[in-house]
Every structure is written in structure tokens, then in C-alpha cells.
Amino acid sequence: MGEKDELKRAFRRPISRRDFLKAAGGAGGVIVLGGLASACAPKATPTPAPATPAALVEGATPEERALNGIKALKAAGKIKDGDTFTIMHHSGQRNNIVPALEEWNRLTGLNFQSAEVGLEADIYTKAMNEAVVRTGDYDIFLTFCNWIGDMAEAGLIVDQTDWWAKYDPEIDHGANAFVPPLDKFTSLYKGRRYAVGADDDAFSLFYRKDIMEAADKAAFEDKYGRELALPNTWEEFDQWIEFFDRPDEGIRGASMYAERYFAYTAWAARFISKGGAYFDDNMDPLIVSEEGVTALEEQIRLTQNHMYEDAVTGDWSVAYTRFPEGSVFFAWAWASLGKWAQDPATSKIAGKVGYMECPGTMHDGTLIRAVPHVVGWSFSVSRYGKCSEAAYCWIQWFTGPTVGLDAIARVGTLDTFRRPWFDDAKMKEAYGAEFMPILLKLTENSFADLGLRGANEYLDKLNLNLQQAFAGQKGAEQALRDTADEWQKITDRLGRLGQIEAWRTERANYPQHIQDLWKKLGKFA
Amino acid sequence: MASKVERPLVGGGRKPAPARLLRVLKGEAFFRGVLAMPMQLLLWFLLIIPTLIVLYLSLVAWEPRMGTDWWQAPFSWFRNYGHVISDVRFWQAIVRTICVVAVAVMLEFTIGLGLALFFQRDFLGKRLFTSVILYPMMLPWVVVGLAFYLLFLEKGPVNYILIHFLGFKAGVAWYHYPVLALSTIILADVWQWTPFMFLILYSGLGALPRDPVEAAMTLGASRWQIFRYITMPMLKQVVIIALIIRSLEAFKIFDLVFIMTGGGPGTATESISLYIYRLGFVYGQLSYAAAMAVLILISISIITRLAVRPLEYEV
């Protein structure tokens, strides 16, 4: 008799009571084991949210107050020498952070160490993973500031508002304050401080000043009816790019992102400057509007007529290749592109780079500029770490006016954010003296990425549809309509009331001139 | 002679419990169970429990950013599955993935079979070339993806050859157009996995009996007739196994797509694995991703079962 037949017989024989009890007992045992396992799952004891502080900690500077805070925590027995704290950050910040850790450990006797992550997206994954498993492996996260909403809602990070009051990091006031509105959108979520900003990612604009200086000014004036000059409005900008687009000479007009992850940047800059807003106060999208459609149509024309196709199909590094190699007249990206383009070791156009403010839109004689602040890094404190307050003290120390200046001036992906640093010799040497005042203005006009819960998802849907529009797969209005439909689904799924609360506080983080424009246009009460 | 005193048996004729337990512990079945226990535990913790968790997640509405524990998530039962079935992007990703699998696996099979037939004869350097052919298969997917991504860049080597040697006026925007972008992914997959097909088919051909072939040659059959009526039928089982294994692997394609196109332009090259990854790790919709993964698992299991059936009938 074959094996198959034997097996069939075995399965067909009647089950005895003993067999049944054995099987049920086994299954029950598994279920009990599973339940026990989940109950015994490692749960790092969460550090309670800070209570209202009694008084400001002593110290003349934010760094000093942070160090005094550590002393007090040691005296209270909450931490001791040799305690290990772990900071999760991107590998691009290694040079900013690691030298500072050595100094901090020497001053405090603690053992702060860094845990590098190679890909930015992995930081989000690991952080949200920690929100689920709560191992306590990380004490501090350095993440994009628009992830704060997700991390706060997941219960991963601690509300720092009371610590700001206790230790005064001098972020939103005083001579050493952050450039507004950086102090707001790098730290606030639903009106509470959940992070400390450590970066300035206001997009910066670079062009070939040698090509502009050598241009046929008369021809420009004949064609466009105005003198050749740096553009102030988006209409002037489009004409300017058109004029300097020379495919026969191997130089295209511009490199502006139209790809999968940053396609929204150029559209958003136009859209917001035209008076657009992502949502109304009921979280209904406002992007399928004249401002939104016009902004996208303009940018589509620019992308399809005056850029290389890798603007659509490449990644963020395209601008860092195209501009320094001299194959585009204009590029915009993070401030680091300026450093890259001015360094003879990495650029063929060193010494030929010009800087400019972001174009805007005229509203009754007033020029409104809106600069996208794209991603941007912020420090937040894990709820499940060893001692959240000690972790916060390190953050305040590292981003302080003196320590932070040295840290940010080192080559890395963190950029300058405190107002006095823009006049500092170290920063001028790092970025170029000519660039600093421009960067300051760009920052003052900047607005943040969407920072609601689900921000990644909202932005991804927007980027997906915009990229399809730039690639010619759908029209401008259809792309925005599809995005709006997806956004509604996301909002309903995540809970409209909570999203409304988050959006209403988030729009208060926009630069004042944009908020004033919205009021003037009747967008918000 | 004293007779043996028969003691009354306890328990209505059954042996005492400790003796029974001792017999079980000393028994062969228990010994076999103990030996199998490590693998059983491994299977439970690496396969069965995670699968049960995925099944559970697919039946609830949970995302990490909800701020609740996953075991406290409210049940939504089959709502996630309903959403999956009505998700246009899901079906587009499925169809796209099937197309990639079909084209890539067929090309790999055709080229692999051709190489395997060619390598049946002896020639100078055969061993060396056999090793060289297998190298692509040993490379990590990330390396292959990056290499091919660079090859097809606007200023990459492929466009350089097209412009400078083949007379093209301008380079081709490989990643700009969906069909071209998919073609680059298929090409990368074919380059990397044709050696796998070659290896299996080469081994299969080498194991075939020579007698039917020699008999056919003696009877005057042409090489094509021998190949079609003798070699291929004998090779059928090996071919089915090779196609099933390769198709299952190809269906999971992720690395090449992620690195070369990111699923773009738009979602034009997004495979089902990449979409599930996006749902789970970018959008945080773990329950929805779990439901999608379960549906894929069930579908693949059914298809594989049907594909393996011809092998069972042959046994």
C-alpha cells in the first residue's frame, strides 16, 4: 500500500476522545503561551511627561542651564555617571554630532553615543518601530520635523513644553533666537513643543552669474520688455529661465525637482505665494483652485520645456550633479548645494555662482514670497528612554548658541538656524559671505512641509500625482483633483477632528506675511 | 508451588499513571518529538506566529500613529480585504508585476535553455565560461539595481553608445516613459537570473538518458525533432520546477524597482511588493498592508498548487 493511501487512512480514522483532548490541550497551550509572550513583551517603562516646573534653572546660557540640569538630575538620583544614552540620526550628521558627544561626555560623565542610520526613510521606520516595540534602545531621535505629528500621536516622543520653560533654550526669544518662523514649525505640534529644531532647510536658489553677466541684455529687453535683472515674480522667473535655456549649447534653463519625493517643492512655492493653502479649517483640500491649478500648469511648462528629463525621473542628487557640472543655468535645492557648487574639488563652476531670493507673486503692489522649507531635522526625546529630561538637556546644549555654532559649522547635513550665526565668520567661511544674507531672507520667508499626522502619506500622494503631471501622464487639474480625493480619504481614516485641530495650529506657524495674505483673501477667519 | 497472587488492577484495568508516563518518556515517539522540537520552535516563531499576527492585523484597523497597542486595535473584520479588492492601484500593481514576471521569466528561460544546450558540448574554456555565467546570480540585488540604474541614466553608458556609435541624435529618457522604465527593470532581472535558469536546465539536460537520443539519431531524426519530441518531453519536470521557482521569486521583485525607478514615473513601474512596502512603512497602514499580503499569499498558493499538479500526475 502506498504512502499516500496510508496517510489517507490515518486521517480518515475516527478521532478518539483522548486524541481530541490532546490536540485541544496543545492548541490551548499555544494560545496561552502566545498570550503570555505578548504580556511579557519587553515594555520599557515610559518616563512620565514633565510636571510644571517651579522655576528657571540657573545658568547664563542655554548650554550652562543644560549642564546644571544634568547636575540636578544626578543629585536627585535619576541618572548617574556612565549611564548610556543613544541618539538616532542620519549618517550625514556624523560630523556635526560625534565631536560634540565627546565634549559632552567629558563634561557630564555620561555616555551619550550615536546610532547612525544610512537612509532617511529608515529613520522614520525605526522610530515608528520603536513606538510599537518600546525597547528603550533610543533616547533621542533626529528626524524630519514633519514627522513630529506621527511620532507624537504614536506616543513615542515627549512633550517638551515645560522643559523649554524650565531650561529656556532661547529659541523663540532673545538675541540668540532661531530665525522665525523656524522656531515654530521645527518644534510645534498642536500648539505644544515636541522637538527642538537643529537645521535650516529653506530652499536656496543658485544661478550662473557669469552667463547672466555675458548675456545679450538688449535681446532680453526686446523680447520681454524689461531690463535683464534677477526675477522678482514667478512670471519674470519663467521668462528668465526661458531666455537662458540653451539646449544646443548643452545648458538647460533650470534644475528644479519634479521627481517622486520632492516634486511638490516648486509647485508649493508658487501656490502658497499666490495665496493658496493646503486645507481649509475643516480639512477640506483647497489645492484644486485657481492658485493650485495655475501654479502647476506654470511649473509643468517650465519642466517640460526647459529642463532635462532627469528632473522628473532622477532623485534629489540630480541638482547636485547638474549645477556644479555646468549643464544648467539655474538650480534650487538645500543650502548645501551652494557649498558644493563653490568648492573647486566638486564643481566646475566654482566662483561663478550667484545667489538670489525666491520669486513671489504680486498682490495689490505687495510682493509675497514663499520659500519651501523642505524636510529639516529636529531633535525629539523618546518617551521610553532612560531619562527623558537628561536627553532633553543634551539637545539644548548641542543646539545652544555657542556649542551649536561649532557643530553646525562643521561639514554635515545640518545647516545654520540661529539669527546671530548668519553674521558669524565661521558660517560665512563655510557658506560664502555673499550667500548668508540671502539665506537669511529665504529662511524668513519659508513655510514648512505638511506636519500633520500622516504627513508622509499626504505628501506622497501629492508627489505621486505631481510627478505624473510633470511626466505628461495627467493634466494639472486632474492631478490636483486626484490628490485632493486621496487626501480626503486619509483625513477620514485618521480622524477628521484630530486633523482639524492639527491643521489649525499648523497654519499658525506660517510666516506672518502669508497669514496676512490668507486673511486678506478671506481664506481663514 | 505457590501461585502468583493476582492483585486487583487499579483504574479499572489500566496501569498506574507514573508507569505510563515513564513509558511515554522512554518511547520512540517522544524521542522523535524532542529531536524535532528545535525546528518546531523555529517554525513557530519565524513562520507560524508572525503569520498569525499578520492575519490578525489584517482583521483590525490599526496604525502605529493611532497611539494604541496593536492588540487593542478594534476589529474591522474583512473591511480591509474589501478595500484591497476595490483598490485600483493594487490591481494595476498586480497586472504590472505579472507582466514583468511573464516577460522576464520567458526571456530567462529562452536564453538559459539556449546556453544550457550550447554548453552540452565540450569546447575550450567551458569550465571557465560556466563559472563566469553564474557570477551575476551571486551579486546582491542592490548592486545589480544600482549598476543598471547608472547604465541607463541620461548621461549613462547606454545613451553614450547610442549617440556615439549608433547615430542617435540624443539619448533616450529611459526612466521617463513607463514602458522603457519597465524594460530596464526586466533587463536587469534577466541579466541577473538567466544564470539560475541555465544552471537548472544545464543540470537537467546532463541528467537525461542518452539512449533515446541515440536511438532517434540512428533512426534518422533531425536535431530539431530530437529536441522537440525527445529532449523537451524528458526535460518537462525540470522545466516546470525551474519556471515555478523563478516565477515565485520574480513575483516578489522589489529591490530592482526600488533602486532603479522607485516605482516611477508616478506608479508606472510599481510592483506589488513595493506597493505593500509603501503602505506599511511610508503610509503606516500596517493593517491594510497585512490584508493585501494575505490576499497575495492565498492567490500565489493556489496558483502554485495548480502549477505543481502536472508533476504529481507524473509520479
Provide a descriptive summary of the structure in words.
- The complex is a heterodimer of chains A (525) and B (315).
- With 525 residues, chain A is an alpha/beta fold.
- Chain A is built from 24 helices and 15 strands.
- In chain A, the strands form 5 sheets. A 5-stranded mixed beta sheet of chain A has the order 2-1-3-14-6.
- The longest helix of chain A has 23 residues, at 17-39.
- The N and C termini of chain A lie far apart (85 Å).
- Chain B has 315 residues and is mostly helical.
- Chain B has a single domain (88-314), classed as MetI-like fold (Orthogonal Bundle).
- Chain B is built from 13 helices and no strands.
- Chain B has helices at residues 17-26, 28-58, 79-85, 88-118, 126-138, 141-151, 157-164, 178-207, 211-218, 223-251, 255-260, 272-282, 286-314.
- The longest helix of chain B has 31 residues, at 28-58.
- Chain B is flat.
- The chains are: A alpha/beta (525), B mainly alpha (315).
Q: How many angstroms separate the termini of chain B? A: 65 Å
- Please give the alpha-carbon distance between the first and last residues of chain A: 85 Å
Mean pLDDT of chain A: 90
Q: How many domains make up the coordinates of chain A?
A: 2
Structural class of chain B: mainly alpha
What percentage of residues of chain B falls in helices of 4 or more residues? over 70%
CATH class assignment of chain B: Mainly Alpha
CATH architecture of chain B: Orthogonal Bundle
Q: Globular, elongated, flat, extended or rod-shaped: what is the shape of chain B?
A: flat
Mean pLDDT of chain B: 89
Let me know the CATH homologous superfamily of the largest domain in chain A.
Periplasmic binding protein-like II
**Looking at this structure, what is the CATH superfamily of chain B?**
MetI-like
Spatial ordering of strands, largest sheet of chain A: 2-1-3-14-6
- Binned, the helix content of chain A reads 40-55%
CATH architecture of the largest domain in chain A: 3-Layer(aba) Sandwich
Class by helix and strand content of chain A?
A: alpha/beta
Q: Can you tell me the number of structural domains of chain B?
A: 1
